[in-house]
Amino acid sequence: MTKYLYILMLCFTAITGFYFFLSWAQLPPGQRYIYPIDDVYIHLALARNFAELGVWSVNISGFDSASSSILYTLLLAGLIRLFGDWEYYPLLLNVVFGYLTVYSVYRYYKDFYGSTELKWAAALILFFPLLYVMVLIGMEHTIHMFLMVLAVYFIHRNVKSDFRCKDFLLLLTVTFFLSMVRFESMFFTVSLAFALFLRKNYLKGTLILVAGFIAIVVFGIISVQNGGFFFPNSVMVKGSYPAEDHIFMSMWQLFENGILLNVSFYKCLFFPLVIIAVYLFEKYRAARLKNLLNETLLIVVVLTSVLHALFAVLMYRYENYLMISLLLICIPIITHLHEKYRKTELNKSLLKILTLGSITAIVLISIYRFGYHHLPLTYMSKGINSQQVEMSRFLGKYYKGEKIVANDIGAISYFSGVQLLDIVGLGSTDIAEEIVRNKHLSAEENAFKNKKFIVEYAAKNKFKVAVIYPEWFPGGVPDEWIPVATWKIPEPYGPARQRIVFYALRSEEEASLRKNLMEFDRNPNVKQEFLNKVTK
């Protein structure tokens, strides 16, 4: 079966390498490689500040937990501490863990199944969960996917060995590192502990909870002691959780938004869950229901998926660790059901139609996701280079060390050396606290209070310039902020918006901002347009 490993490795290398060089080729001649998304540079800025200054922030002072991956930021900080600052550590780590993920998928099917499952893996494993895309964007998601593959492997092995000590210690280790790579792994920890409690393995379930939460609790205590949230800013700002005063209505809204009316749920999770449901029905409809409690692996993956859909973001890239784990357990089910239906005469049974329809949907979704990401992967780096990296060059030249308001903070924080106020709240705890405080208010009241807080905070702390997407400012950009110029890029890929606006926050800053923009030797791909004459 080694040939399937070679096929998997070759496909992974060819597709990842192709898009790496295709993306790089879109940049100006001689330009270094730029990551397709801006968030990588948030990790790099935070890791560098922690390695060099002992500061957990994208700024050179304070405590602002902009990263939702303790492990990834610590890995980057360790590399910077040992070998010096280098912007391509994320790419290096992702390539290494990409290959480890491919190898782990191969070992899972080699050790527990056979060549039929490996054929399916060769066809789908890169495209359904977008492994090659995760490698190229340079974030922590490749490590997350690798650890989830290991988690599926060791749960399977533990079930077969009845959780013998050596196997269980390996599962504990994977659980510990999963908890550090992304905070959504709490859903996995709770699901695995629950599945062990169903097996009446209470001690082992408790140990899983300890392994899965110890790093989170330690980090949370350190964060609170330094004036932050227990969880990172990104988790608090982006996460979904019920309001304390309307908990039942909020729970329904979570179900409605996370599952019932969530298109991403149907694209990413629904059809694998249908296949699992058909398999369980076929297997246990004539058996005692309590036997279902021993399906530990299925319980863990399904429950993790449901919890994530309810309480976290199920789009962009955050869903792919679920998709690879669902695919891992669905492929053996597909081969099993195919063999069973091939021998049955019930060619038009409802279960067979559901299974074949779901398999077809998974294949079509894989093709769709591959095609959909072709243009973004090709041009996102060019877009980030034209907007975010260019903004960082401008700010680094004219405003280094100064106080700047922004909303896409990655490249700015890593390259420019400014002191940032992030209106989204990821890199600014004070803003994040206000956003979380107002999260369950009406949209109008939420926008009004957030806007008021940002305007007063920026004025009180003497911020000079804002470089933002006006559409992102809650309640609209304040009238007292003076719009000076816009930058617009032609690429609709990479940055969240093609147009950014430079604002002078005080009238005395307007003339100098205009002068700096006129003097700056900007990328010819960026169209600059001035908006006002200098205020008298």
TrEMBL record:
Pfam families in the record: PMT_2 (PF13231)
Residues covered by the Glycosyltransferase RgtA/B/C/D-like domain: 70-219
Domain of life, per lineage: Bacteria
Membrane protein topology class: Multi-pass membrane protein
Main location: membrane
Keyword Glycosyltransferase: yes
Keywords annotated in UniProt: Cell membrane, Glycosyltransferase, Membrane, Transferase, Transmembrane, Transmembrane helix
Subcellular location: Cell membrane
Keyword NAD: no
Ranges that cross the membrane: 7-27, 89-109, 130-156, 168-198, 205-224, 259-280, 292-315, 321-338, 350-371
Protein name per its UniProtKB record: Glycosyltransferase family 39 protein
UniProt source species: Kaistella pullorum
Lineage: Bacteria, Pseudomonadati, Bacteroidota, Flavobacteriia, Flavobacteriales
